[in-house]
């Protein structure tokens, strides 16, 4: 069931190591099928180059496995919590990408020092508090702190990104690492000036309404 | 029309991700055809691995689309502004390459700490002021600050490079990131000494008159 | 003899350069065959892309070469010392991976600043003292300082990781570099807070008992 | 003429971009044929992926081109100077590899903070003074400062490495960047302790007399 979505998720999962966002089996992506409301997610602890489309697990929003021969990601409960509280979101990505996680290690958000941050995120990239892994606590932290940003950092842990599709959430995961790296490099040179909020709003509006095809 | 130039621009565009200068759809290259005066540029928000030669957009210098089935880059007005004010330039590259953009985040130019900077740039790599994206403002900043350098940084934004050909501008984009990285690494160790202007002039003259075939 | 183990070790050796953990001929992996008690190890000073399965050297635990046409790794005596003192370990990896070795250069352990460290290592990654290469001294340092961690740093030198299998030791070598990099990046931004020991214990228990298939 | 040496040099040249030591056309390798005394060197300003074995230039030690349809590297006079003053050397590599060049930018040598430095270099990696490009000045700086090390840094410029063969010089170029990176990362964390000279001598003796096949 949901074979097309599994195939898409498989392709997106392969981009995580290619983009340098994950190591060994870390990280995961899920997608919600808008029609059935079911969620498809990575199986737990599987190497990316051994993952196959049919290995993805299908669950309902309460966590009952609808289909799948493998155990789902240990972040599943948090993904489901986010989907239940954010009907606008159909895709979630979790990584420990190194530069973004360096900010997360300190519980530090990333200010709008770059036009690329204004474009993609529309404001600072927030940082949520620490939460244990395995239950809904991470999901609660994400929902509480992410606001309208497509990305949130998790203290001492890593990154969650969200989007209308899993592909949009993956784009946010790629971009958060990219801007975190540039901001990290800039902070080693001195203190950048934040872009003023009015300019941030204009940049974000143009990027989300005019940019692209 | 201008099929050979589109083909060349397509090849140069593929080098941007290969050289680590761009992320997702960011960055763009344009070229001016010296005969017709028309400008060929990347379409807006297209992934590099999906870009085809025929997707490039052809415009005249006033911004009228002459040929193309896609919307041109949202930096088009600034590219055209540069071409109108710099008849010596037929190629422009724009990136957010991380090390150069770290200097740009701070509005900081890159002094001549390396023979490679003297060779390629002939002096410090200047930094222009902040400008919004979408209109000619970035083009105006570039023209005002770039001088005889093939590269200029844009405050809180990224890099523009120019050249007699798009290939020359791409070379400058690769080299500005390379020297920005080495200078960044050096600045973490201490304060390098600038090469004296007389030596800079000699190095640049040799590189542009003797080096190569 | 032990052809399957040599084949596996060869595949694991090829992952060392692919994962960026070694340079030129540096680094090595060994595995103990649980049945015979023999140890298979990389030959000394061989390039990874020239290494073949049949080039691996087989020794008994006292260092007598049982099979092999090449000289064994110059770290062999230390690998054997570890196997003799840790019957629970059947795989050992040694690298000079850059971020982990930066901590090692300072004789500095890596605290639990990240959930990924709690997950994989269950506590801080310890650092052993300086030892000369060629004899058992490194093995003694490893056994004395590694405790229940799968990884230990060696002052002014590099990293040793251990596991129930060579593959598990390789995973630890990949993860120690990954978390060393993120912690290094975090320390450039400020001082992260350690995860409290109770949470570390819970995370490690979940990762080693629930995570995976 | 010297077709085998050209073929080998071509293969070594291709390793420079693969190992991340050069950018665009920067860097070069030369080799001296021990029988004829002729030197084979990279042509000036040629892209690595366009270089062919037959493009290499053959010169005698005084700089007369013996064979070749292209202009030799603009560092040729310095390579020849080194060969004339160091009959023990038959291979030279020049790069601007980023971490080593960061130390060079500051005119700073690299102390023996790692066993890998003791192994390969047998002591600190020295830094020579600034010299203009094109004549013998760089060669003079190299000969004056390199001593028995296979590598020397050039102030505000880059790296020269030497060896009994071009392959040995390439290994030194790879290793100098590797250790420069790890030392750079260590210096961001604090002040490493140098390995004491007696241990350095023992490590270097073992590496050059026992290590390898």
UniProtKB/TrEMBL annotation, chains A, B, C, D:
Biological process according to GO: pentose catabolic process
Gene Ontology CC entries for this record: cytosol
Keyword terms: Metal-binding, Zinc
Domain Class II aldolase/adducin N-terminal: 7-184
EC number in record: 5.1.3.4
Similarity-based family: Belongs to the aldolase class II family. AraD/FucA subfamily.
Cofactor: Zn(2+)
Domain of life per record: Bacteria
Name by which UniProt lists this protein: L-ribulose-5-phosphate 4-epimerase
Natural source organism: Litorilinea aerophila
GO molecular function, one term: aldehyde-lyase activity
Enzyme class label: isomerase
Catalytic reactions on record: L-ribulose 5-phosphate = D-xylulose 5-phosphate
Pfam families: Aldolase_II (PF00596)
């Amino acid at each position: 069931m949901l074979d097309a979505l599994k195939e898409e998720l498989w392709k997106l999962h392969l981009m995580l190591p290619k983009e340098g966002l994950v190591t060994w089996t870390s990280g995961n992506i899920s997608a919600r099928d808008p029609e059935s409301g079911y969620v498809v997610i990575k199986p737990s602890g599987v190497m990316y180059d051994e993952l196959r489309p049919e290995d993805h697990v299908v669950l309902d929003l309460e966590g009952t496995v609808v289909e799948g021969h493998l155990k789902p990601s240990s972040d599943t409960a948090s993904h489901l919590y986010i989907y239940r509280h954010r009907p606008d979101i159909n895709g979630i990505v979790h990584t420990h990408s190194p530069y973004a996680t360096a900010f997360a290690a300190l519980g530090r958000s990333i200010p709008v020092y770059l036009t690329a941050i204004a474009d993609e995120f529309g404001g600072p990239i927030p940082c949520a508090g620490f939460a244990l892994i395995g239950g809904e606590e991470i999901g609660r932290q994400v929902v509480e702190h992410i606001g309208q940003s497509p990305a949130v950092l998790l203290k001492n842990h890593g990154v969650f990104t969200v989007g209308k599709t899993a592909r949009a959430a993956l784009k946010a995961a790629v971009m958060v690492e990219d801007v975190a790296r540039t901001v990290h490099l800039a902070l080693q040179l001195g203190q950048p000036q934040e872009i003023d909020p009015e300019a941030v709003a204009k940049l974000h509006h143009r990027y989300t309404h005019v940019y692209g095809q």
